[in-house]
From TrEMBL:
Keywords: ATP-binding, Nucleotide-binding, Transport. It comes from the Bacteria. Belongs to the ABC transporter superfamily. InterPro entries: AAA+_ATPase, ABC_transporter-like_ATP-bd, ABC_transporter-like_CS, P-loop_NTPase. One of its GO terms (molecular function) is ATP binding. SUPFAM superfamilies: P-loop containing nucleoside triphosphate hydrolases. This is ABC transporter ATP-binding protein. Residues 4-232 form the ABC transporter domain.
């Protein structure tokens, strides 16, 4: 059995809620946790990882309160925090061996398991280099490697692609996609394309509340017919930008092409286009734009 159940979970700092009455039931697959900075993603993940005490509510793993698991939770949980620091004096391999013993892996299997996780994250070639010589993407892959040492059933990854270049992001995404079988992965990001192809479910948080509990397909379906493209002169483009949510604006030979989000036709020359997931997300989270 693999089931994470969260009921009416809240986190308060003084009078401010970082998270407010969140309820959620997760089964194997990837849950993309998306929302702007400050939405409450890190607070939620730290509470699931038992690093932060909830103000109210419960988190259960297979029916049992996670705090009751104590040390046994280390067998189940893998966590890559947002501010994952590495020890400069270690090589990748030494670092993983060190963490493996910290996590209580039996001595007899440490070396073998470290080799296995190095292979999973494709860092065998670089394993004997010192960590400060790693690129941002390689550091994040070492971060995933350490989270995988215990082959966790619940893997929590907080904003792993921040600071990575596009090629490293794609590579990291592919790596995570390969890990979704037989485990629950919770991945937080404010870059929707990070979870687009891999998340079976999207939880959109805003100001500590669940704005939508949905799937990429459902989010896209909701945006159908509401994304438009129009090519126009610079003055009209500026007017449209002031009145609508604009997702892209590209200078062309014959004017400026805008993609914008609107329930009704925003301009007589506008045509409906297929929505990207990012546009569907903008639609779901966007503030109501007051028409000029
Ligand atoms: N230790 C703290 N003391 C006071 N307020 C806090 C503390 N930690 C977080 N908060 C507040 O709680 C809210 C949610 O923060 P949280 O870090 O969970 O959001 P987030 O979605 O992970 O954002 P980010 O992507 O920036 O980490 C924010 O308004 C934040 O300022």
């Amino acid at each position: 059995m693999m089931e994470l159940t969260i009921e009416r979970l809240s986190k308060r700092y003084g009078r401010d809620f970082a998270l407010r009455e969140l309820s959620l039931r997760c089964e194997p697959g990837m849950l993309g946790l998306v929302g702007p900075n400050g939405a409450g993603k890190t607070s939620l993940m730290r509470m699931i990882a038992t690093l932060l005490e909830p103000s109210e509510g419960s988190i259960r793993w297979n029916g049992q309160d996670i705090r009751a698991y104590g040390q046994a939770l280390r067998q189940v949980l893998g966590y890559l925090p947002q501010d994952f620091g590495v020890y400069p004096e270690f090589t990748g391999r030494q670092f993983l061996r060190y963490l493996a013993s910290m996590k209580g892996l039996p001595k007899s299997i440490v070396n073998r398991r470290v080799d296995e996780v190095l292979e999973i994250v494709n860092l065998e070639q670089e394993a004997d280099r010192k960590l400060p010589t790693y690129s941002g993407g390689m550091k994040q892959r070492i971060g995933i490697a350490q989270a995988l040492l215990n082959d966790p059933e619940l893997l929590i990854v907080d904003e792993p692609t921040a600071g990575l270049d596009p090629a490293e992001r794609v590579r990291f995404r592919t790596l995570l996609a390969s890990l979704t079988r037989n485990r629950i992965i919770i991945l937080s990001t404010h870059i929707i394309s990070d979870v687009e192809a891999v998340a079976s479910r999207l939880l959109i948080l805003q100001e500590g509340r669940v704005l939508a509990d949905t799937t990429p397909a459902m989010l896209l379906a909701h945006a159908a017919g509401k994304v438009w493209s129009v090519t126009t002169d610079p003055a009209t483009a500026l007017q449209l930008q002031a009145s609508y949510q604009v997702s892209t604006m590209v200078n062309q030979m014959n004017g400026i092409t805008l993609r914008l989000i609107s329930a009704t036709r925003p301009h007589e020359a506008a045509v409906v286009v297929d929505s990207s997931l990012e546009e569907a997300y903008l639609l779901a989270t966007g503030r109501q734009v007051v028409r000029a």
